[in-house]
Amino acid sequence: MGTLVSIRRHFAVAGSAWLLAVGGIGAARALEFSTVVIDAGHGGNDQGTSWAGVKESQLTLQVAERVEALLKKKGLKTEMTRRSDIFLPPDGRIEVANRQQESSIFVSIHFNSSSSWIFRGVESFYGGPASMPLAREIQNRMAKELNTDNRGIKRRLDLRVLRLTKGPAVLLECGFLSHPVERVRSQSTAYQQTLAQAICDGIMAVHDEPRAKPMEWLDRDWPSWTDYTLLGWVRHGLNQLLRDRRP
Ligand SMILES: [Zn+2]
């Protein structure tokens, strides 16, 4: 009898721990947003790093445009901080991020450089702890898909675009232009597309639809998990009723 109680207790404890773990992982990973602000680093007079005629500001825009196209295919809204070779100070980029009406994340795209040509690879920076899962998901995919060094993720509060943007924000260093091979690769369509796909996949890995506010909840059309519950049926019924009564 004592053994049975003990076994039951063990199962209960293990079960609760499992649920907590699964719930915890889910909660730590998910970010609610409907818009992605894509920031092509540098531009205009500010070329960023420049090696053997390859300008960072040009590559960041090319990659940003590819990321935008992929995210749109996934049904996310996007906003670009710049679409041409213009100069935009950090405050201008922060302003674009913070003027979003709907919940958004900020993804800044850069390329790296070093005084030593031997360094290569990708690294990602984030501001607040809430941005960490986003940085991690993108970083690991970039390193794996581009088959380059994984230099990890780091918290960087000295970067204004990470510190002053309201929503989750990351800054990605997408390869070393000072490394001869990575510089050549970075200009290729294949590298840029693989990179953009890794960034898009990382974003989608943490993406969660924003929870609707009370009125929207009654009015919206798209299906969600509530549609498969009793609550969902009630909402659906109310929705139909209200729709029928509208002129
Ligand atoms: Zn840069």
Q: What would your notes on this structure say?
A:
With 247 residues, the chain is α/β, with parallel strands linked by helices. It is built from nine helices and ten strands. The N and C termini lie far apart (68 Å). α2 crosses α7 and α4 (132-146) runs antiparallel to α7. The chain folds into two domains: 27-208, Zn-dependent exopeptidases (Aminopeptidase, 3-Layer(aba) Sandwich), CATH 3.40.630.40; 212-247, no CATH class. A six-stranded mixed sheet has the order 5-2-6-9-7-8, sandwiched between helices. The protein has a two-stranded parallel ribbon with strand order 1-10. Strands 3-4 form a two-stranded antiparallel sheet. The protein is elongated, with a radius of gyration of 22 Å. Bound molecules: zinc ion. Zinc ion is lined by residues 41-42, 48, 56, 110.
Total domains: 2
Envelope shape:
elongated
Output the CATH topology of the largest domain: Aminopeptidase
Number of helices, counting only DSSP H or I runs of 4 residues or more: 9
Element-level helix/strand string: HEEEEHEHEEHEHEHHEHH
Largest sheet: 6 strands, mixed
Beta percentage is 15-25%
The span between the termini is: 68 Å
Report mean pLDDT, rounded to a whole number: 86
CATH-defined architecture of the largest domain: 3-Layer(aba) Sandwich
Unreliable spans are 15-28
Please compute the radius of gyration using only Cα atoms. Answer: 22 Å
* SS-derived structural category: alpha/beta
Number of strands: 10
